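Two quick folds needed for the group meeting slides. Do the first one here.
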Amino acid sequence: KNRFFCYPVDAKHYLLGGPVNNGGIVFDWARKTIFGPDETAEDVLNVAQTAPAGSNGLLFHPYLGGERAPIWNAQARGSFVGLTRNHTKPQMARSVLEGIVFNLLGASQGLLDQVGQPQALRVTGGFVQSDFVRQLIADIFNLPVIVIKNEQCGTLAAMFLAKTALEDKPDMEKIKKRTAESQVYFPNPQNVAIYQELILVYRKIEHELEASYEDLAQFQDKHPQKFE
């Protein structure tokens, strides 16, 4: 069904994943566009934390660059939905982050259907350096989030695959030490309830907007933005 990628590692194992276009790059867009280029990521996160879970009903679909998983639509476009004059920067900042994680949740669904529900999520990378974002992921996925010590697990995985290809057995004990947990974040039941209610609205609106993506893309191609 083309819901995720599936790469052979060896004769018995495969690497499954849900690739997305809209992660940290969307957060950086929000930082520059909503707050200004002089504001840091930490400044934006501090502001976002002052808004409640669910951003007072403001939803953000983060499809600024089309999207692969979970909707597989190159013509997809981003949107704020539910915006009122009562919403300000804190709600906008938080809704951007929530939208990115909602999208990751959608991308994970194909994997969950194939391999089953995990007991926890192990996270790494630049987007999850913040305690706030880690807790946000735990609340939206309703799973414990385990932060691992090694911040460059992509490089570690590449080394593992290279050794496997060369039939040089990787030292699993060293890998276990590098990927050991450094911190665990548990879901907040109150926030989980809010997000489980809101994600249904998010998905419904996502499907309703899908019919307009092609028209918007054609209009934007016909009237391209001009930079001076």
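Then this one, please, same format:
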Amino acid sequence: AAIHSLLQMIEPVVVRYCRARMGGRDLSYLSADDVAQEVCLAVLKALPDYQDRGGSFLYLVHAIAANKVADAYRAVARDRSEPVPELPERPLLAGNEPESHALHLDLGARLGRLLASLPRVQQEILTLRIAVGFSATETAEALGISPGNVRVTQHRALTRLRGMIRDDEF
């Protein structure tokens, strides 16, 4: 029952984190939900060796999730499979026209490049605060820093992004 309760608490957070970090990127056979499932399994596997040292359990969950997302990107980078010669037959959904899809991918790529130019801590804080929806306190617990530091770093990251957007005429 305790394991079931733990999974019910961390699964939505892990899924949001994986979806935010992986976005709509084409990772062939890997989806953010698959990676989130791997994270939950890894957390369960780590439970017997976990020792409470007064820190947040979310810190462990975040560390495992960050490693699993990185593993997913590495696995896709190693995948040298060939694309199929024919597209599968499926109806196009409303709003899924090639032009809107291309614009969406371009915007995602541009945002990804902007975020990638930020220091890693700022990237993590923006992901946890904006995409995952953590509070400053939850983000601080997950990253092992103070809530004030989270707010200051988030402000600096957003200010830096605004400046880059103005400079690049995004």
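Slide caption for protein two: The first helix runs from residue 2 to 22.
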